[in-house]
Amino acid sequence: MAAFRKLPRADRRNRSFSTRTKLPDELTSWIHGEFISSTSWCSSYDNLTPISGSKICRVAVPSVDQVNEAVESSQKVLPEWSTGSSVERGKKLSAMAALVNDNQEELAQLEAIDTGIPIAQIRSNHIAYAVQTLEYYGALATKGFPGKMMDVPAAGGHADSFAYTRREPLGVCAGINGWNYPLVTMAWKLAPALACGNTFLCKPSECTPITSLRVAELWKDILPPGVLQVLVGDGSVASQLVRHPGVRKISLTGSTATGIQVAKRSSETLKRLTLELGGKSAILVFDDADLERSVQVALEGNFVNNGEVCSNCTRVFVQRSILDEFIQRLKTKLDGSIRMGNNLSEGTNIGPLLQHPKQPIGHYERVMNYVKQGMEDPDVELVHGGRGYEENGGYFVEPTVFVCHNDDASIARNEIFGPVMTILPFDSEEDAVSRANNGTEYGLAAGVMTRDVIRAHRVSKRLEGGTVWVNSWNLSPVEMPFGPFKASGYGKELGEEAIEHYSQVKTVYVEMGQDNDSSFF
What we know:
Elements (H helix, E strand, L loop, with lengths): L4 E2 L2 H4 L8 E2 L3 E2 L2 E2 L2 E2 L8 E5 L6 E6 L3 H20 L2 H17 L1 H12 L3 H25 L5 E3 L10 E8 L2 E5 L5 H14 L3 E5 L6 H9 L9 E3 L4 H9 L5 E5 L2 H11 L5 E5 L5 E4 L5 H13 L11 E5 L3 H15 L24 H15 L3 E5 L3 E4 L2 E4 L2 E5 L5 H4 L6 E7 L2 H10 L3 E2 L1 E5 L3 H10 L4 E4 L14 E2 L2 E2 L6 H5 L1 E8 L11
Parallel strand pairs: 3-7, 10-11, 10-13, 11-12, 13-14, 15-16, 15-23, 16-21, 20-21, 23-24
Antiparallel strand pairs: 1-2, 4-5, 6-7, 8-9, 9-27, 14-26, 17-20, 18-19, 22-25
Helix pairs in contact: 3-5, 4-5, 4-7, 5-6, 10-11
């Protein structure tokens, strides 16, 4: 397959997308340090841009033999990579971060074309965040991952006997990534995996494969062949990785339904799992909160990234005494700040929804179906938006806000994954916490808006979410773990806690004498 290449300046003006990179006509997988050739028995599909629904390029699905080849390549290089210096691995991760940073504008444009997310948000929330993640685990790796040592005379051996632990890699790990943050979810999984000495197979979403392949090509002179493979294609590729006996760990970002299937299939080979799945997170806005700040947090926590974020606070519980003022301020803010359109335009903050290669408008129709259900529900009141439309081949949904007086309404219980907010009035703290915890099966995140620091800590303790934000939303520093409760999955990404999910601990007992005569034999 032809590699990505820089376009001469004159050529950039002649393309339908204003990019700095010429995409090859066909994308193939990156195996053992190079793009593989597609074969006549491989299937393929058109990768579509949400901007216009037009074809970006073809994507070749690797064959079963090619996926096996990728796993074998990762296994072969594993002994050298895993026993090498942790400091050197850290330096490589830092160099990878620097290359992403140096090519941030090219990567931002490619990711914008692939996802439909506004390019300004991609620069700060996608590219910069991926750089931070790589830098963080690069720094951790340079410090090493020490175990512990202790004297163990009580174990029955010599008085000077001791034991120590070693933190060792798992082996070949695979990341199955989400389509809404392609480069971020790749970095979240790849960086701790490589830092620990594992090799890594990246399976980007079939909808958004471009930036994962581009960074693999950028890193070709940093990583030995086989340390990183990028396998593009549809769910059949992911399914093969999940079942493959040579893969020791799967980290999935996807729906809860997909997570359940991955858990079932991976159990056949007892794989380690990290599952970051669906969400329907609740934020509780109390009557003593900074109202203007609360409106801003709710707006950004629902509509950033086109509303396509699993951790968004799509259930906004507002204390009844401030409900009317909250709604009025929110409507005023929306009317004055929303700029919908081509996501490559700098001023746009809501772009077109994703288009799936097999069902181009399937996601749009799903979101609009929930909007329709809300508008037809007698317990639900539409207070803003509600309109979807097509423009130049892109499909848009206006930021939509409902007030819901029934927690069992479909829009209040189900993950919509689009720019749709549901406001639910509450009367007391007990009422709000109970409904937030019991209203859905999910437990990805939660939040509290209040000036009362005692209440903030009290409510945070009771909310059933893997992350709880106080007076903010969707801030996930790389130094702190992020991970779900309940049907949103299990395991942690980010922070030092992620290291535990990409490594295993070995205990070594050292006998220092021969005077431990057994009384049994």
